[in-house]
Write a structure and sequence with these properties.
Keywords: Carboxypeptidase, Glycosyltransferase, Hydrolase, Multifunctional enzyme, Protease, Transferase. There is one protein chain. The protein is an alpha+beta fold and about 775 residues long. It has five domains: about 35 residues; about 180 residues, Orthogonal Bundle (Penicillin binding protein transpeptidase fold); about 270 residues, Beta-lactamase, CATH 3.40.710; about 60 residues, no CATH class; about 80 residues, Sandwich (Immunoglobulin-like), CATH 2.60.40. Helix 13 crosses helix 15 and helix 13 crosses helix 19. The radius of gyration is 41 Å and the shape is elongated.
Length: about 775
């Protein structure tokens, strides 16, 4: 009885123990399972290099990653040839195991036991990826177990393609070259997607022994490993026998290839704005390379003149994308500002903004291309602009003033248009460096009083090209793009229409060419180009911009330090580089006339105003929606005797004894200078002796000194006061003038009306009387020196 009871309790205890054991085992398995799923998904994390690619994918330049490795991101999926070779070499059962290959483990264990040392590790690609993610820790048994666990966890979280992608991205390929894309670029000079079978096989064996790539006796070992892998690929049917034989003929790379450096300044600028990774630029790689050579040659010539820096920007007008970007000259000019991106650096604009004012005024109906603009000595609120040649033309057509880049007409037009208005319009056009209020710039805004960048300047000229080709009724300004695939932000409504833009480009075709410069002679006369130059005050900045239907080319030249250079100018310094660049661009003809945005009007032939005073007229084109309503105020219908020798009026002649003739009669100051440039300019005939002259006629003007002027007399080398040279213009070329200062007679002049005046300090009154008794006076003040 006791035995039966004892046996019953023994069986019950055993079953209870078994139940507890199973519970503990289940709990342990649950904890292990939970722990397994709590393991991190171990993937490599490392910074990327900044990689700049051209529009067609060519490499333009790159920067080291933050950890000083060359690690180019994969642009897409890893190349299939490399993946096939990699799996065949490293992990043949990759697609059938879950991160650990039991067969490989058994083989490795047997090999290691037979050798008495570790000769095989049985690492799968997943295990190798885990090692890469953990910075290659020491090879110990516990570490190997953890590595297998992490590999299993990795396979649970990622699919096979993701694992291969990570491996191809982060595998080492010798030195500080990481990733298959980097290796393809550094060893073969092409993208990984373009690798041959031989190249893919070589890269597949490299992560297993990266040191083999270095020159020396190890190269034969690398070649043998590559060829054995190629043979395996043939045997497995991955490549044909012909492909195998051809692959064997391909040599190993001799050395690591240098990275291209055709766009270092663009790379630096974009690296500051973009996160590390691949930057897809709109650059035309072939054009960039060709213009780099042009920049190098022209840069050497400029250096001989003391000009150490230059920048060149080419914009494709079809989509307002940047085709070439050279931010500076060569990088080997130590201490000359060679690392500064001068396309983005604000510089004094010189007169490069004049075409924009011209286009805006055409659109607003404030000018016509042939309208005469005064070009006489001018002083406005103490500001006295001068033309580059220090000459005056009296009156000049608006389009000719633009072509000749005359400063005085430009200042007068800006005053007419309004500084604040123009300031706002420039900002609307994309000028991003006009930070000060318009009043701070004043009229100097049109002559270099503001700073702007080559990026903004070339962009605004490209807008003219794009607008002139537009057929939209409500075109907008669009930003210039340098990144492919970037969405163009909607710009502000364009204040320049196709007609005004086209007329402006037409006027810019007439710019005088830079002398006998070789590059202009090479730029065939049959090619049409609109272009403009500019030079800043102090000879610090030389500008040149050209526009063709396809391209806008902008050039800046000078010194990054801001140091001026004697003889520097837009024409002599920047234009040769401009035309050297244009010679590398295809001819794109000329802009079609935007007939839909132009209208024909009759204008006075020699003044460009609406007809009045019987002037001879010509047909001219104006923007369709402009409201040009300025009537010629300088044409007079004058009555003369039948021979046209004398003027007469109704008081001294009968109706049938006089004839009417139209005369262009400019104000005396304008006529004085205009007559020098236009010998056929006709003065009004004198009045017949029995006729009385009109008292409303302005016969003469004082050119200098200005009304109310206050100044010091100039001094000679001995410190003695020099005389003041006063000047008067008279309508009649043969007029005789009598001069007085403070009612004291000074003398008489004929033909050339200048008078040397010596006077003490204080208020002065200059009076001039002609032979008809017409008198004109001018008050001014000579300031005392102490």
């Amino acid at each position: 009885m006791f035995h039966k009871v004892s046996h019953y309790f023994s069986v019950a205890a055993r079953k209870a123990w078994q139940r507890r054991a199973w519970r503990w085992l289940f709990m342990m398995l649950a904890l292990l399972t939970l722990g397994f799923f709590l393991l991190p998904v171990t993937r490599p994390q490392a910074p990327y290099s900044t990689v700049l690619l051209a529009r067609d994918g060519q490499l333009l330049g790159a920067r080291l990653a933050a950890d000083q490795q060359w690690r180019f991101p994969l642009a897409g999926e890893p190349p299939q040839r490399f993946l096939t070779a990699l799996v065949r070499f490293e992990d043949q059962r990759f697609y059938s195991h879950w991160g650990v290959d039991p067969l490989a483990l058994a083989r490795a264990l047997r090999s290691n036991l037979e050798a008495g040392r570790v000769v095989s590790g049985a690492s799968t690609l997943s295990m190798q990826l885990v090692r890469l993610a953990r910075d290659n820790p020491a090879r110990t048994v516990p570490e190997k177990v953890l590595e297998m666990a992490l590999a299993l966890r990795l396979e649970m979280a990622l699919d096979k393609s993701q694992i291969l992608h990570d491996y191809a991205q982060f595998a080492p390929f010798g030195g500080n070259i990481v990733g298959v894309e980097t290796a393809a670029r550094r060893y073969f000079g092409r993208s990984a997607s373009e690798l041959s079978w031989a190249e893919a096989a070589m890269l597949a064996v490299l992560p297993n022994a990266p040191a083999l790539v270095h020159p020396g006796r190890e190269r034969q070992t690398l070649l043998d490993k590559r060829n054995r892998l190629l043979a395996k690929l043939r045997d497995k049917g991955d490549i044909s026998a012909t492909e195998f034989r051809l692959a064997l003929l391909e040599p190993l790379p001799e050395a690591i290839l240098p990275l291209p450096e055709t766009s270092p300044h663009l790379l630096a600028t974009l690296a500051e704005r973009q996160a590390p990774g691949i930057i897809h630029a709109t650059i035309d790689a072939g054009l960039q390379s060709a213009l780099s050579e042009v920049m190098q040659r022209q840069g050497q010539k400029l250096a001989l003149e003391g000009v150490w820096n230059a920048a060149l920007l080419v914009i494709d007008n079809e989509d307002l994308s940047v085709a070439a970007y050279l931010g500076n000259t060569e990088l080997d000019r130590t201490g000359r500002g060679e690392f500064v991106d001068l396309i983005q650096r604000p510089r004094s604009s010189g007169s490069i903004l004049k075409p924009l004012l011209y286009a805006l005024m055409l659109e607003a109906g404030e000018i016509s291309p042939s309208m005469l603009v005064a070009d006489v000595p001018t002083q406005i609120n103490g500001y006295r602009p001068e033309n580059f040649d220090r000459q005056y033309r009296g009156a000049v057509r608006a389009d000719e003033a633009l072509a000749l880049s005359l400063n005085i007409p430009a200042v007068r037009l800006l005053r007419q248009h309004g500084v604040a208005r123009f300031h706002q319009q420039l900002q609307n056009l994309g000028y991003s460096t006009l930070f000060r209020p318009a009043d701070d710039y004043g009229l100097t805004l049109i002559l270099g009083g503001a700073e702007t960048s080559l990026w903004d300047v070339a962009g605004s000229y490209a807008q003219l090209a794009a607008i002139s080709r537009s057929i939209a009724a409500d075109s907008r300004y669009l930003p210039v793009n340098i990144l492919t695939g970037s969405e163009s932000a909607q710009g502000k409504p364009a204040e320049i229409g196709p007609g005004a833009a086209w007329l402006t480009l037409e006027a810019m075709k007439e710019v005088n060419r830079p002398g006998l410069d070789q590059h202009w002679r090479e730029f065939a006369s049959s090619k049409q180009v609109a272009w403009k130059t500019g030079t800043s005050f102090g000879l610090r900045d030389a500008w040149a911009v050209a526009v063709t239907p396809r391209y806008t080319v902008g050039v800046w030249a000078g010194n990054a330090s801001g140091e001026g250079v004697a003889g520097l100018s837009g024409t002599n310094t920047a234009a040769p580089l401009l035309f050297a660049a244009l010679n590398r661009l295809p001819d794109s003809g000329w802009f079609a006339e935007p007939a839909h945005d132009l209208r024909s009007v009759e204008l006075c032939a020699d003044s460009g105003y609406l007809p009045q005073g019987g002037c001879q007229t010509v047909s001219a084109l104006l923007p369709k929606h402009s409201h040009f309503d300025q009537i010629s105020r300088w044409h007079q219908l004058v009555h003369t005797d039948p021979l046209g020798r004398y003027r007469v009026n109704a008081d001294c002649s009968l109706f049938n004894e006089r004839q009417a003739q139209s005369y262009l009669q400019l104000p005396p100051a304008m006529a004085f200078y205009y007559r020098r440039q236009h010998p056929l300019y006709r003065d009004l005939p004198p009045w017949r002796a029995d006729c009385k002259a009109s008292s409303e006629e302005l016969a003469m003007e004082v050119l200098y000194p200005e009304a109310g002027a206050r100044f010091y007399l100039p001094t000679d080398l001995n410190g003695q006061d020099m005389p003041l040279i006063a000047e008067v213009a008279h309508r009649e070329a043969d007029a005789v003038l009598h001069w007085h200062l403070n009612e004291q007679f000074l003398g008489t002049t004929r033909e050339f009306h200048t008078m040397s005046i010596r006077a003490k300090s204080g208020k002065q009154l200059l009076s001039v009387v002609d032979q008809q008794g017409v008198r004109i006076s001018r008050s001014f003040t000579i300031l005392p020196r102490h």
